[in-house]
Amino acid sequence: MVTMLDVARCAGVSKSTVSRVLNNKNVVREEIKALVYKAIAETGYRPNLLAQQLATQKTSMIGLVITNEVYNGPFFSTLVYNAAKFCEQHDHRLIFADGKHSADEEINAIDFLVRMKCAGVMVYARHTPHAELEKIINESPMPVMILNQRLSVCPDRNIFIDHYRGGEIVMDYLLSQGHTHIAWIGGKMPSPSNTARQQAWRDNVHPDCAALVAQGDWSMESGYQAALTLIDGAAPFTAILAANDDMALGAIKALKDRGLRVPQDISVAGFDNAKIGHYFSPSLTTLDTPIEQMIQCAVEQIVGLSPDRPAQGLTGTLVIRDSVGPVPVLMPN
Amino acid sequence: MVTMLDVARCAGVSKSTVSRVLNNKNVVREEIKALVYKAIAETGYRPNLLAQQLATQKTSMIGLVITNEVYNGPFFSTLVYNAAKFCEQHDHRLIFADGKHSADEEINAIDFLVRMKCAGVMVYARHTPHAELEKIINESPMPVMILNQRLSVCPDRNIFIDHYRGGEIVMDYLLSQGHTHIAWIGGKMPSPSNTARQQAWRDNVHPDCAALVAQGDWSMESGYQAALTLIDGAAPFTAILAANDDMALGAIKALKDRGLRVPQDISVAGFDNAKIGHYFSPSLTTLDTPIEQMIQCAVEQIVGLSPDRPAQGLTGTLVIRDSVGPVPVLMPN
DNA sequence: GTGAAAGCGCTAACAG
DNA sequence: CTGTTAGCGCTTTCAC
Q1: Is the pTM of this model over 0.90?
Q2: What is the pLDDT of residues A188-198, one digit of tens each?
Q3: Distance A7 CA to C2 C1' (A)
Q4: Which segments constitute the HTH lacI-type domain (chains A, B) (predicted)?
């Protein structure tokens, strides 16, 4: 491996001079500069970023911790896509650490990124208790931003989406269409999004519906199964609200497979506004979750672009499409 | 920031002793070990990974360069999900660099990862000429694995999928259903997958179909538009083959919107076996691309688990579902 | 302007 | 077993 010293020798100057021309520090004489560049080209020198970052005490990496339960759905895709996009936009690089499926593993993942001296780290966690997160935030030399869950402390390290309000928005729409008996398909717990959305459902739905709950795990398949359970249950309903679009889509397939029409017989709505929802039949009514905004906000906070407190309580907007219709006159179930 | 020296002082030992207990080198006396652990706890010491990696000359990061054109579809999602999964499986971390949309930017991204001293880097590029890639492979001290395109050199740094053969498999099936007039919806160029698949289409389709080509950019929307163009064109056809599932799904929506039934009037097939294909109506016939295998192979090659030459010429398997049917007796168009 | 020398925080001989 | 001493490759005073 060719180091800065090799370049220096090759150019007949000192290490510091090479460093200077590379960093445009102090004015180096033009002729020497040329010599150095020539030597760099000849030797094929590539500065070692580990060494550089150790010396300068700063890096250009932004860490992202993510529980692998959100993996591999449109939500994950959007999250990562936007994280990478905004990082690059600010000349940083995204580095990943898998939070897997326990508090210990999440904490480990954060620890890795902190010890890598990332410029900042974004945490999309599920299991770690808030007290623990708070401790990490306070002990870490770089900003650690907690995404998608509301902390009672450290508001400037916290960007969350108001999923309760989001749930209300969708429920309001469902109610406005005359639905009173609305079933709920939940995502995998623990999850702040799921909890809040479910609460919004519970608080707004007819009290008879308490039993109209089926548990999924965010995947289409689980939505499919959950819907079957609901259909086979005793309680009648005219609409299904699923905690995300994937499950809503799975549910629609289940309804169709059982000969039920959407939305004529049963209406279905979801959350997150996955792209496919527009192309599905029927196209999916959903809440557009402001993931992009959330990530942008986090990245800008880390790179120090937005001096003020990060945006909080983002809600998202309702996307009305075909999967929700007026309540049918006769309950089919 | 608390360093190893602080811990050493706190425990009343030398730096090397601390290092030893941390790395389980040489047997350190139990009582001293305890002292050190106590000091670590007291000081809240967190080892600096940059320093450690600089000193040991090895890192636990695996780099991934990816052109941002594949971003944000199911293909991207699967790629990143699996990359992260296999990295973690081998106790490594995934680090990202965006290849954006030009050869220069791709090379830059690779360079960053190389200079970060990643254990290895995986390159999913589109624009960089092979000669350039070859040069990078040879000059880099760590394995640089080129994914999804066939290099004429460096076979052990190259894992590709035989998209031509994959294309043939789908075409064979379409032909076996009696289709002769098959339209093609292509992805964004340049792309090795697209080129090879399109070639397979061209080599197997009826010569009359040369004009039955529409250009997309891999997105559902572009598939939708491409299908409209095809429908509005003069040439008749009974099937559409799209270079990926997203475009196939967009195309199906376009056909439906124009009152055409799939597959009764027009059959549609895609590539990649996106999860949603199973839930769509009609469910999508597609080729399951072995992305997971490709990534697994790359990661194992990097961590030195598979001593032999990496797998090459993976093809994938046909997933037969409902979007392709027998050719209709009367061409609808 | 440029070079020498002292770090950044850690590991790895080498003595003892 | 443990401490001392050099590095790893780069930046950054501080003199000249």
Answers
A1: yes
A2: 998 999 999 99
A3: 16
A4: 2-56
